[in-house]
Each structure stands twice: as C-alpha cells, then as structure tokens.
Amino acid sequence: MALPEPTPEDATDALLDGDRVLTRGTAQAALSHRDFRVVWSGTFASNIGTWMQNVLLGAYAFRLTHSTTYVGLLFFAQLGPLLVLSNVGGVLADVLDRRRLLICTQVQQLAFTVVLAVVVSAGSPSRVVLFMCVFVIGIGNALGAPALSAILPTLVPKPDLPGAVSLQSVQMNLSRVIGPAIGAAIYTSVGAAPVFFLNAATYFFAIAVLLAVDYPRHPARRGEGSVFNRLSEGFRIARADPLIRRVLIILFSMSFFSLAFLGLMPAIAAKNFGIAPRSVDYGVLYGVFGLGAAFGAVSVGTWFASVAKDRLVRPAFLAFSVLLATFALVRTPWAAFIVAPLLGYAYFVVVTSLSTVLQSHIDDAFRGRVVALWIMGFGGTVPLGVLVGGFVAHETSITFVLLVGAAAAVVLAAFADLRSVSPTSA
Question: In CATH, what number does 27-420 get?
C-alpha cells in the first residue's frame, strides 16, 4: 500500500520496519532500504581511503616544500577539476547509465592512485609529476561525482530523502575522521606511499557495491539539442528557479570566501598551533573537525528531522562565522582541539540543510545536471578559494584569510532567507 506524502510538520508519520517504527525522513528510515544501505556502506569504505589520501597529501606537500602556495596548488589539483568538469559529469549522469559511468571513473581513479603511490615512493618526487598525478585523479572524480550524487537519492522513497541526504553528509565526514586517523598513523610510521596504495585498494569496495545492487533507471533523454545546450541546461534551470539559484549562490560564495581553511589546515596547524603536519596530533586535529562535521550532518536527519531545513541555515551560518573567527585567533593546540569539532558541526549543519533543500526540490530527470552545479560549488570552488587564500596568506597571514571568511559568512547568513523563495519548507 502506498504511503501518503507527509507534510513538513508531520514528524510522527512512521514507516514500519519489522517490529520497529521509524519516523519518515530520518536517517534510520533511509537505512531501512537495502540498496541504499549497501551502496552507502561500500562508498563509505572507499571514502575512508579517499580522505586518508586527501588529508595526507596536504601534510606531505607542506613537509616537502614548506610552501602554502604549493599546498594550495595541490589542493586545487585534487578538487579543481570539479569546477570545470562536474557539469560534463552531470550531463553524462543524465544521458548514460549511471552505474557504468561510475564504475569506469572508479577504475580510472584506482589506476592513477597506484601511479601516485609509485611516484611518491621515489623519496623526492618531481613537484610537477606529483601535481599531474593528483590532477588526473581529480578529473576522474569530477566526471563520476554527479552520477553518485544522482543515484543515491533514487534508492529511497521521496519522504525518506532528507535522511538519505543527511547520511551522505555523515558518510563524508565520518570518513574524514577515520581516514586521517588511519592515514596519520601509517604516514608517521612508514611514510606517504603506503597510504596511497591502501587508498587504491578501497576503490574495490565502491566497484563491488555498484555491481551488487539495482536502482531505478531514469528515462533516456534524447533530442535535447547540441552538446552546448545539454551542458548549459543546468545553468538555465538554476537561473529560472529562485530557490535553486539562491542555494547555489550561497554555496559558491561560502566555498570561495569561507572554506579556505580546509586546504590550508596543515599550514594553520604548523603556524598557529605548533602542530607538525607529520604527526598524530595533526591527524587528531583533522579527525575531531571531521567528527564534529559528522555530528552536524547526522543531527539534520535526527534531532532536526522535524524542522524545516530552510530554517536551520541562517542560525547555523552565524554560529559558523563566530567559530571560524575563534579558530583563526586561538594559538594553542588544546584550544584548537576544542574549537575544531564545533566549527565542523556548524559547517555541516549549513551544508547538509542546503543540500536537503536542493535535493528535495529538483526533478530526477535533471538531477545529474543540477547536482553537478552543487558539486562545482561545494567541491570545485573550494580549491579555487584555497589557491587564492594560500597566496593571500603568503602576503599577509593565515589569520587574515580566516577572518575574511568569517566576515563573509555573516553576510551570507543575511542573504540565506530561503523561505522567501521556497514554495514549501524542506
């Protein structure tokens, strides 16, 4: 029997799972769906390996060069392709079989991660070769990310979509906790190359689960005109829809102005807190930040499940701005360990709320292309901000870069009145 569509205020609508009663829209309800649970678990394992590599690459690059500019360049190589190619990936996700596309991109990233590990094993690798290896891996990620983001929401009924989006954010951030903790221990004891080899092995988990499940195929879309029309369709949709447009403006602005600290974390740890990038303490610092972010993401699908997500964005932005300014001004490791998880919490309440509003609003036929714009903002614009932030930090200070980001977050909090452009509460 079909379940009725719940109203946003109906927090007691329930889904029966055996003898348990699960509230619709929660993380628990999303996990009750087998295919979502399997894909979520397999990609979680792969993301742990990815974050082992992502975080350790920054620490390795700073130790190799002692240059915030090069750390910014390498971070741009990791995520910069998302800014240019995720839109192409979004078109591919809407016109090709998403599973086959994902398997191809996962295999490509696996192969070049092995190449990266071999290059780093040389002891003193060429900076250019290191950059190019990371850049090619980033291209594979950019082409595949929209397909994964488009598949996961189709594995649950629409009423459970908020819980699924929350769990996507939880996965991302728990992997930031577990990955750096494992990676830091390996890096400190035996070096960077084994971390990259281990990451290559984790791609097999993602490939295995993609082969193990079925998912609803979106209708084939043909006769859409030229390639340019297909590439620009996501932009046209965003321009015509006030809610999508405002969410994306907020995300792009936040990513450029306020999130440079993500890529500059090794330099922040070394210069402001006296924490060496190649140390267990650095892994703990990034880990507690990720743990806070994971709690922020899961709270959107649990504690705040009955709250309209567009109501959460503005207060979370204000909290994020205060905590980012505090993180910029503290100078002791113990203070950094306290502030970092709180900063991560506020950061991902903002991001998960914005993502839930967007995913609940868009049509599945265009989901790949619209989600590609989200990925361009969330993934692709951050490294651009890190690149600029690294240069500005070299000319001024890292503290100045973080304080500018905090000020920008205050402005965005004022702009983030999503209810004024939303037809319904998410």
Answer: 1.20.1250.20
